[in-house]
Specification:
about 400 residues, alpha/beta, Rossmann fold, 2 domains, nine-stranded mixed sheet, two-stranded antiparallel ribbon, about 35% helix
């Protein structure tokens, strides 16, 4: 059996351990602020291709402010075990309702009946949103990061596998394809794991390309779900049809000088990711995309159509993150329909997609401000909606 992540790669005050018997898994977590019982608890959920480790720079500040902080390697990732790594295996276990169940079971397994907040980044934002929507008694507030939540799908919505957008993208003068459907292909895992430049170099280019360090990340709202509009996004989202993701990001590999200057992800920290993915592969995370694009579990989520997130909520993203707009209309739907008590939206300057790694001090500051106010609101039974404003933080 593999050991928890070595303490030598973690900040002081953050430990790694296993939590057994969590919805059929043994979950690997990072934990801070664990030395005093009864602290308010915050659950941090990562996205793709990240790990609990992506929260390492935020956790100490939250713990120092009096919170018990938990960040798990989610199903399919890192040192969490008990999930099926086979492309042809138990795909349904990766559907969004079961990912939510994972977090409900984890909260119970650590001896809690509720957490004061669930915070999710990227695909973790989807899990956090569903946790807050379906079980507000357990998840008392929510912070969504980088990926807006537009609300539950309507009855009658079907799988997007046959969406005509794919033929339209392929028919462009420069033929293209959507990254999420590519991630669902049988070859995607091997394309990354066994790429020509090597796994470590692939991840370096991938993280660089989606960060504020890449000068081309200047996101704008898209008018609609059309091939012409989607093709305005960088190729990490709307790929050239005949290239793999590893070939795509290789063209944007930063120079050795830029790598040395990357303070938010030095090579020693990137090595934690590349070592973990070399051991596990990417298929666990890719199964999440397969469920989304293939409509696996869609009928379950339609049960909640018309429901909103009623607990206090906040949105945080990098100002250089195209993820805000990659699904046209989702950002606006989140603020006007999906979340009834979204008090703030923050777009942080100097951050792209990896906002909690690129600007951890600002993220921690915003989280602490929200946690203090939302905890007071929840405990006071406050039901009034605050005004929604987008704040640009420079």
């Amino acid at each position: 059996m593999i050991d928890p992540l070595d303490s030598g790669v973690l900040p002081a005050g953050v430990r790694a351990r296993f939590v057994p018997d969590v919805n059929g898994m043994c979950v690997h977590i990072l934990e801070a602020g664990f030395d005093e019982p009864g602290r308010p608890c915050v659950l941090l959920l990562h996205g793709f291709p990240e790990l609990a480790y992506s929260w390492r720079k935020v956790m100490p500040d939250l713990a120092a402010a009096g919170f018990h902080v938990i960040a798990p390697d989610q199903r399919g990732y890192g040192r969490t075990t008990g999930w099926d790594p086979d492309y042809d295996g138990d795909l349904a276990s990766f559907r969004i309702m079961n990912l939510m169940r994972d977090m409900i079971c984890l909260v119970a397994a650590i001896g809690r009946t509720s957490v004061d907040a669930v915070v999710g980044h990227d695909f973790g934002s989807s899990v956090a949103a569903w946790c807050a929507l379906a079980r507000p008694d357990i998840f008392r507030s929510v912070v969504l990061m980088s990926a807006p939540f537009a609300g539950p799908p309507p009855p009658g919505a079907g799988s997007s596998a046959e969406d005509p957008i794919h033929a339209s993208l392929a028919a462009l003068d420069r033929p293209r394809k959507h990254y999420q459907w590519y991630y669902g292909t049988r070859d995607a895992n091997a394309d990354m794991l066994h790429c020509r430049q090597g796994l470590h170099a692939f991840l370096r280019a991938y993280y660089h390309y989606k960060s504020a360090d890449w000068p081309g990340n200047k996101p704008e709202r898209l008018v609609g779900w059309s091939a012409a509009e989607l093709a305005r996004m960088p190729t990490y989202y709307i790929m050239d049809r005949d290239l793999t993701i590893a070939e795509t990001v290789a063209a944007e590999m930063p120079s050795p000088e830029a790598i040395d200057a990357c303070v938010w992800l030095p090579d020693s920290e990137l090595r934690v990711y590349s070592d973990e993915y070399a051991r596990t592969g990417f298929q666990g995370g890719l199964q999440w995309y397969r469920c989304r694009t293939g409509g696996v579990g869609l009928s379950e989520s339609q049960i909640f159509y018309g429901s909103r997130i009623e607990v206090p909520s906040m949105f945080v993203s990098g100002a250089s993150d195209w993820g805000i707009y990659q699904t046209p209309g989702a950002f606006e739907a989140m603020r006007t329909r999906a979340c009834s008590r979204m008090s703030e939206c923050h777009l942080l300057a100097g951050a792209g997609h990896w906002v909690q790694q690129e600007q951890p001090a600002d993220v921690a500051r915003l989280l602490l401000s929200f946690l203090r106010s939302s905890t007071v609101l929840c405990r006071a039974g406050e039901v009034k909606r605050k005004g929604s404003t987008v704040e640009l933080n420079g």
